[in-house]
């Protein structure tokens, strides 16, 4: 009987995997627990599955079958969780969301950036002809683009949906968030420096900076899965970033989750 239990567990696991390989699935990822928890609360018939130590929750939002997971902070965690989700659940698309620091001087904490493209701001190499490049390399040795483009269909849907979402007003003001389409840059650094913000703006024309988006985008690009990154600003990535994040994080997370849910419900 002891030997039979692992076999039954394996059969159950394979059957569950096959169930999600044959259904259209949307993958929803977030870096922090708060953003992911807000999405999970809206799931119908939620079920949790642990894959190689990472928890994934499946369920429905509207008519869409979804799988939700928290990636954890940083590019390695984000890439690993994304790869596990793609391999196990075979989602048709990936939507990644969370908070970020604003680098566009026209944006304030609470505003939202829908990423038209993402890039690694902390990656650079020197080519054989001694020219610097920000292009990453895939496992096959092929060179990836310096900027990963969002899926055009998902981008258009997000832009349209954002115009109809009733966002919470930004704390200490009465105005709703400004939503723009722009450039999000990623690095394994929490940016809290006005000088660094200026550098990112000059080098990438960046509108926001965070620690996971481009890693998710790179995995999706290499595995040919449509993706979209959405970031709600919790701070301006300047010297006061940590204090601002504490003040604006909860509202930013709720507004980000509202937009994600509205996008998925409209699929």
TrEMBL record:
Query: Organism source for this protein?
Result: Spirosoma sordidisoli
EC?
A: 3.2.2.9
Keywords, in A-Z order: Amino-acid biosynthesis, Glycosidase, Hydrolase, Methionine biosynthesis
One Gene Ontology MF term: methylthioadenosine nucleosidase activity
What domain of life is recorded for the organism?
Bacteria
Pathway in which the depicted protein is active: Amino-acid biosynthesis; L-methionine biosynthesis via salvage pathway; S-methyl-5-thio-alpha-D-ribose 1-phosphate from S-methyl-5'-thioadenosine (hydrolase route): step 1/2
Q: Which PANTHER family match?
A: 5'-METHYLTHIOADENOSINE/S-ADENOSYLHOMOCYSTEINE NUCLEOSIDASE, 5'-METHYLTHIOADENOSINE_S-ADENOSYLHOMOCYSTEINE NUCLEOSIDASE
- What is the protein's given name? adenosylhomocysteine nucleosidase
Write down the Pfam families for this protein, in alphabetical order: PNP_UDP_1 (PF01048)
CDD domains, from UniProt?
MTAN
Nucleoside phosphorylase domain residues: 27-265
- Name the InterPro entries on file: MTA_SAH_Nsdase (IPR010049), Nucleoside_phosphorylase_d (IPR000845), Nucleoside_phosphorylase_sf (IPR035994)
On whether Acetylation is a keyword of this UniProt record, the answer is no
Query: What GO cellular-component annotations does this UniProt entry give?
Result: cytosol
The biological process GO terms on file are: L-methionine salvage from methylthioadenosine; L-methionine salvage from S-adenosylmethionine; nucleoside catabolic process
């Amino acid at each position: 009987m002891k030997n039979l239990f692992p076999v039954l567990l394996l059969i159950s696991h394979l059957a569950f995997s096959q169930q999600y390989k044959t259904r259209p699935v949307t993958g929803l990822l977030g870096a922090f627990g708060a953003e992911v928890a807000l999405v999970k609360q809206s799931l119908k018939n939620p079920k949790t599955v642990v894959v190689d130590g990472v928890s994934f929750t499946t369920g429905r939002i509207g008519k869409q079958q979804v799988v939700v997971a928290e990636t954890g902070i940083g590019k390695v965690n984000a890439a690993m969780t994304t790869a596990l989700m793609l391999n196990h659940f075979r989602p048709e698309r990936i939507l990644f969301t969370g908070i970020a620091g604003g680098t566009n001087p026209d944006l304030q904490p609470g505003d939202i950036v829908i990423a038209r493209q993402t890039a690694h701001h902390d990656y650079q190499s020197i080519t054989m002809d001694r020219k610097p490049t920000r292009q990453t390399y895939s496992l096959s040795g092929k060179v990836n683009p310096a900027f990963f483009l969002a899926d055009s269909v998902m981008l258009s849907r997000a832009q349209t949906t954002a115009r109809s979402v009733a966002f919470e007003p930004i704390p200490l003001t009465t105005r709703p968030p400004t939503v723009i389409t722009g450039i999000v840059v990623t690095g394994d650094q929490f940016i809290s420096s006005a000088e660094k913000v200026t550098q990112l703006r000059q080098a990438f024309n960046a509108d926001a900076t965070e620690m996971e988006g481009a890693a998710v985008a790179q995995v999706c690009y290499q595995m040919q899965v449509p993706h979209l990154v959405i970031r709600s600003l919790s701070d301006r990535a300047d010297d006061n970033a940590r204090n601002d994040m504490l003040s604006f994080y909860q509202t930013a997370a709720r507004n980000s989750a509202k937009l994600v849910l509205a996008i998925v419900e409209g699929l």
